[in-house]
Amino acid sequence: MSQPLKRIAVTGMGVVSPLGNDIPTFWNALCSGKDGISQITSCDLSDFVIQQGGQVTNVELPPELHAEFGDDRRLRIPMRPGNRSLNLSNAAAVVVYEAWRQASFAGGS
Question: Whole-model pTM?
Fold first, then answer.
């Protein structure tokens, strides 16, 4: 027996990509034919043949959002040098914040 379809509603979107870290920047770059591929600068690739790729940069939440949260309300993630999960955590936070802002939730403007 098949399951009934569940309906969803998209209330906001976020993006973190080599083309941009917000919807307008990403969409404009995509529509203008940019590819987001460049020389990788975040790590040493001198031992590798290929040194270009889709590098995501400037993944940060807005400073005014940081100011709203004291140190007692921030999660500290212990990181080892060169560990990529910090970039992933930042990217996830930025995408969620952008979707939250677009949906006009409190604190998202």
Answer: 0.57
